Amino acid sequence: MAQTAQTTVALLLFAALTGGTAPAQSGLTPAETRVETQAAVLAPVAAAAPATDTAARGRTAAPNLRACYDGKCNLTLSKAVRFRVSPRFGVTRLSISFNRTSVRVRATGPGVTSQAVLGLRSTGSVNGIGIRVVSLSRGKAVLKLSPRR
């Protein structure tokens, strides 16, 4: 019985992929084959859609940290991050962490460390990279970075 069901499913998938109908040995009429084939093909797609939708689960998408390499980007963070920046700033890496009251930006490079601690709607800079705190809460920080050099 289980092997017959597996055979039927395999034939239905074959029919769906080739655009035809299942062979006569499946025991299904062409109309039944089309309905079951559509259901078999569409069900996995519908089930997978919510898993990739981060907004539906209440999370923000991961920020594009590579866009910040030149010191110019907008960031929406839900956790601490660390990313590379151009050596023209005299540093090669920025680390950003936050809590509900402050954002800590630390710039490091060969023999160099610079740090700024900023509050809500404040601005500052580390080694020529300007930082503006647009909004801040316990679980989210929105920042705007811009080069000052």
Could you explain the architecture of this structure?
With 149 residues, the protein is α+β, with helices and mostly antiparallel strands. It has helices at residues 2-18, 30-52, and strands at residues 73-77, 81-84, 93-98, 103-109, 112-118, 123-126, 129-136, 141-147. The strands form 2 sheets. It has a 4-stranded antiparallel β-sheet with strand order 1-8-7-6, with no helix packed on it. The longest helix has 23 residues, at 30-52. It is globular, with a radius of gyration of 27 Å. The protein starts with a helix and ends with a strand.
Low-confidence stretches: 31-56
Indicate the structural class: alpha+beta
Q: What portion of the residues fall into strands of 2 or more residues?
A: 25-35%
Count the helices. How many? Answer: 2
What is the general shape? Answer: globular
Q: Got a strand count?
A: 8
Strand order of the largest sheet: 1-8-7-6
Q: Let me know the largest β-sheet.
A: 4 strands, antiparallel
Mean pLDDT: 75
Termini gap: 74 Å
Element-by-element helix/strand order: HHEEEEEEEE
Backbone CA Rg: 27 Å
Helix content: 25-40%
